[in-house]
Amino acid sequence: MSPDRNPLRLGSIAPDFEAETTEGPIKFHDFIGNSWVILFSHPADFTPVCTTELGVVARLQPKFQERNVKVIGLSANGLESHKDWIKDINEVNDVDLQFPIIADADRKISTLYDMLDYQDLTNLDAKGIPFTVRSVFIIDPKKTIRLTLSYPASTGRNFDEILRVVDSLQLGDKNRITTPANWKHGDDVIVHPSVSNEEAATLFPGFKTVKPYLRFATQPGTQPATI
Ligand code: BEZ
């Protein structure tokens, strides 16, 4: 595939699809509606790392909802298997999982979203068929892909990091800022390089210049720290 034809690049419109989920059938673009969406896949139902991950996402769901983010999982198993597994996830993690999980037994959607890694020999089922990898897509309300991640089967993801990226993207969409390494909500932000010093004086009063190309400002919408 030529790089500019890859439909899953950042800035592409997330491919639409119809699917059965544990919360009923969906058409993906209708499901997105006016929300942000985190679409994430995991290798298979009833696997240990995945069981912990889905528990973490269920616990974080109120934080995603506060940010107008819907979460939706996917694994290449059928609906009945998903529903049985959710009982285990709830029991093991002491949660009440409320988001949909796509049933993708025929791997149609995981193929559409390039979630099957045929080259990763650590991620094969008993028949030698690749599992879905731990993919993450952050999709905005315009249905544009804003982040993609691919983790190995052996490593559970850090969903606080996914939340942190949502915060950074949403803040950057509203304000002419970027966020530095290890930034978290409430920390100082970076004035976008396209903002002149004259504009910055109005937009970010008291901004600090470390280098002409590196200017910090208080995160918009938060009060300056009091001592
Ligand atoms: C897991 O979720 O624990 C897992 C899934 C597939 C391969 C290895 C680990």
In a few lines, what is going on in this structure?
This protein has 227 residues and is of the alpha+beta class. It has helices at residues 28-32, 48-66, 79-93, 108-112, 159-174, 197-203, and strands spanning 18-21, 26-27, 36-41, 69-75, 101-103, 134-139, 145-151, 177-178, 189-191, 208-211, 214-217.
Features:
alpha+beta, four-stranded antiparallel β-sheet, binds benzoic acid, 227 residues
Number of strands: 11
Mean pLDDT: 93
What does the main sheet amount to? 7 strands, mixed
Number of helices: 6
Order of helices and strands: EEHEHEHEHEEHEEHEE
Shape: elongated
Unique ligands? benzoic acid
Radius of gyration of CA atoms, rounded to a whole number: 20 Å
Low-confidence stretches: none
User: Per DSSP, what share of the residues sits in E-state strands of 2 or more residues?
Assistant: 15-25%
Spatial strand order of the main sheet: 2-1-5-4-3-6-7
Say what oligomer this is: single chain
> Could you tell me how far the N terminus lies from the C terminus, measured between alpha carbons in angstroms?
55 Å
Percent range for helical residues? Answer: 25-40%
Structural class: alpha+beta
Describe the protein:
This protein has 227 residues and is of the alpha+beta class. The protein is built from six helices and eleven strands. The radius of gyration is 20 Å and the shape is elongated. The N and C termini lie far apart (55 Å). Benzoic acid (BEZ) binds next to helix 2. Belongs to the peroxiredoxin family. Prx6 subfamily. Thiol-specific peroxidase that catalyzes the reduction of hydrogen peroxide and organic hydroperoxides to water and alcohols, respectively.
